[in-house]
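User: Assemble these into one structure.

Assistant: Restating your components, then the assembled model:
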Amino acid sequence: MSKKALTLAEKVWNSHLVAKGEDGAPDLLYIDLHLVHEVTSPQAFDGLRLAGRQVRRPDLTIATEDHNTPTWDIDQPIADLTSRAQIMALRKNAEEFGVRIHSLGDIDQGIVHVVGPQLGLTMPGITVVCGDSHTSTHGAFGALAMGIGTSEVEHVLATQTLPLKPFKTMAINVEGTLRPGVTSKDIILAVIAKIGTGGGQGYVLEYRGSAIRALSMEARMTICNMSIEAGARAGMVAPDQITFDYLEGRPHAPSGEDWNDAVAYWKTLPTDTDATFDAEVFLDANTLDPFVTWGTNPGQGVSLLGSVPSPDDFEDPNDKAAALRALEYMGLEAGTKMKDIAVNTVFLGSCTNSRIEDLRAAAEILKGQTMADGVRMLIVPGSAKVRAQAEAEGLDKIFKDFGAEWRFAGCSMCLGMNPDQLAVGERAASTSNRNFEGRQGKGARTHLVSPLVAAATAIRGTLSSPADLETWNSEGGHI
Amino acid sequence: MEKFEVFTGVAVPFRRSNVDTDQIIPAVFLKRITKTGFEDALFASWRADKDFVLNQAEYKNAEVLIAGPDFGTGSSREHAVWALRDYGFKAVFSSKFADIFRGNSGKQGLIAGEISDKDTERLWQAIEAQPGVASTVDLINKTVSIGSLTVNFEIDEYTRWRLLEGLDDIGLTLRDEQAITDFEQRREAWRPKTLPARS
């Protein structure tokens, strides 16, 4: 009997089956890696305590502080008392239950989705969960990585498993070569604009095609990170030599004989050639422009060369109503050219775009330039290690000379939980992942952009791409 | 968890699509370390507007929410479900829920029932014709009724069974503890371990 052809997601799923669900019950899946942060865990640890349960596998669990943490004066006690209480609760829980923790000031502290890959804990063929929807980031390694709620966090702490319903598979085929100035962020914003914020619901997405294969691990993480913004439970990229090269030698990557065993297994993971997906989407990388959002959900995006749409452009009455509300909230007129939109703030950071490659790309654009009048720019590395590496490469000097604020690691201005927030009515170009109403501060307006667009926008003061700069060489990129 | 069978309460027509969890509960309220007391945080930004539907006298004590498509998108925060529950909601209906939100609801005994866009509109109209009208949510028959109008809703069978029985997930899983232990014996050596810590 020939073996059924399988997709990458199905292979990872099948290899983690503890018990097959019967009579409509979900399958029970083993969880290889559980990442924990301060916001979605206190009630889960409390639940364990109430039930007299332990953390089943502290050796598969790791905690870091990121959402609430300030990004400067990190040697001072956290000023906001409720934030401080939440951080202290995590530290106390980690100690009581024997969970490894990287606290503010530690070299391995940072955004949970930057820390896991950086330590070499995230690897192909594993299951990863975290009480955070952007756990999809780790799918870039060919892991099945899902965001979960606090009850599920408690469930994984107690049992190292999760009851899950099988999902459908969707191939996102991106063929061709990106033009200079166009990045993986633009790919994912274009994908979400195409399929909508609910388009991936019930699916695990697999990003495929020549444009994806050509991307670095950092760029793949950016794409997988935003799978949740299309409503998908997870997003994945098949592991290849780029994945193995990124992993080899990292602190927790397998070594010696284990490394050889692992690589041999990882090479069996890519989707079989004759496997079929439940749905397929196609995107042409050759013609893709830088993409930016105009509205209040990540699906409301257009080419940077385009204009703010009119509610009348939408046929679906819900989309029309959403567009009307979004334009009102964003303070935008239909027909305005995206490039004419002026911003007050530029934020380079978040689990989407705060890795060393993102900082290098921005530094190349910002080098020797001056910031537009009336604009402020925050540059927030994803982890303490990324910060140290950027400083070793002299990137911090470029940022400071430009006039940007060079911060310590954390989620920062991606969400309104720490001191880095926008004021009412302020408008930001942000490399983060959500442009929801109030996401970056009450009444704040967000345009999601790539690091390159963020950098060019900080120079010009209006939404811009590097191609709009005098220093841009149309043949091959930046001079 | 309490058993859920049939429930009657005021329904509110929530004529919005894409209600993300940042709207259900803004991040600033996530700093708390308790699991209850989130009622003040529900739709906090929108509630500042006096015309917001939950600020209207007829709907102030609503317990059933009928929303547009793509409800609960965005962040995984279970606080969104806690806030709805603490405010008093027992059931939410939409033609499309975000996966994580739907999962979180099931854990907390909040019904997340799927109804068609057409039935959503019919329910909205029935409520608006009689603001403050009670609705009956019947989990046994998977229906929601307002007066003479009854529509069917979908909820996965396993979640429905758990809610009808009032069963807790961890307890159910631990019935399979031997299978978990057996699986752990088979796991390959290359799989990640966080301890001992290496940097």
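Chain A touches chain B through 88 residues (CB under 8 Å).
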